[in-house]
Design a protein that fits this description.
The chain is of the alpha/beta class. Helices cover 52% and strands 13% of the residues.
Length: 304
């Protein structure tokens, strides 16, 4: 019997715990700071989760600890349970957080002898429950994946460095949520001029959305060849948004990012021809002597 403990019995934690409760190989325990509230306790009982009195009590009762609270609490929770962690423990932090935060949690967990897992939940937990796809990295990733197979979980190991799994999720979120925000700003501006429907209709078949590697290469290649013009066009978009009474946050940010790339003389470096692969552009941008990225972005560039 594998003893699995969930710190955090919110919607996601309860859904995973409920699924694991149906697996014969699992015994599930849980702790939540709101567990004394009748609704939380009733939900835990329905999920057949054994409630324990504290986070340290949970760690003492479990072999696998999964923290699913919030990024803001991740380090303090790790510090709270660290005195009872040992080499028998796998400690998986599933919180949506930056790689830097996962490094900090690992620095608390690993001196105890416990193996740390940076877990990135890559889809909606319900209705997949414990079978939701999770990327894992860190010193305990391989062992966690082995336990996951016994527990009918879907764990994909991508490396032994904490932070790598979260980096995938964070920059995927930048793409998805950034696109969401761009569509919103586009729709707001178009609606003020009465053209939103025509804007979206005009996009049919314009971009290769079936293959995101191809899409990245296409778009970044266009930046190489036409970056100056495209940055200026976004500045004009910002002017149009201001005229419609809308703050042009994304248009101005997009113009600034494209101009930053233009200032690296990409067109000259590639002879005015779009490279086939976006990675070729990234290599040029990372060369010594180019305009440096801000510190956090520079670390992220080295990780890729």
């Amino acid at each position: 019997m594998i003893r699995v403990g969930f710190i955090g019995l919110g919607e996601a934690g309860l859904a995973m715990a409920t699924g694991l409760s149906d697996v014969a190989a699992a015994h599930v325990v849980g702790y939540d700071i709101l567990q004394d509230e009748p609704a939380v306790r009733a939900a835990a009982e329905q999920a057949r989760v054994q409630i324990v009195g504290s986070a340290t009590g949970l760690a003492a009762a479990a072999d696998v600890v999964i923290c699913l609270t919030s990024a803001s609490a991740a380090i303090s929770i790790a510090e709270e349970v660290a005195p009872v962690l040992s080499s028998r423990h796998l400690y998986a932090d599933y919180n949506s957080a930056s790689p830097e935060l996962k490094w900090a949690v690992a620095a608390v967990v690993e001196p105890t002898g416990a193996r740390f897992v940076d877990g990135a939940v890559m889809a909606a937990v319900s209705p997949a429950r414990h079978q939701v796809p999770v990327l894992a990295s860190g010193s305990g990733a391989e062992a966690f994946a082995a336990v996951g197979r016994e527990l009918e979980m879907r764990i994909e190991v991508i490396g032994d460095r904490p932070g790598d799994a979260s980096a995938v999720k964070m920059f995927r979120s930048l793409l998805v949520k950034g696109l969401e925000a761009l569509v919103l700003e586009c729709a707001l501006g178009g609606a003020r001029y009465g053209v939103s429907e025509r804007v979206f209709a005009s996009m049919g078949g314009s971009l290769p959305f079936e293959d995101w590697e191809a899409l990245a290469s296409y778009l970044i290649g266009r930046t190489v060849v036409h970056g100056e013009r495209r940055a200026e066009e976004l500045r004009q978009v910002a002017t149009a948004l201001v005229g419609a009474g809308i703050e042009p946050w994304l248009a101005e940010a997009g113009a600034a990012r494209l101009q930053w790339a233009v200032d690296h003389h990409l067109r000259e470096r590639f002879g005015g021809v779009a490279p086939r692969r976006y990675q070729d552009v990234l290599r040029v941008l990372a060369e010594p002597g180019t305009t440096p990225l801000p510190p956090v972005q520079r670390r992220a560039m080295r990780m890729t």
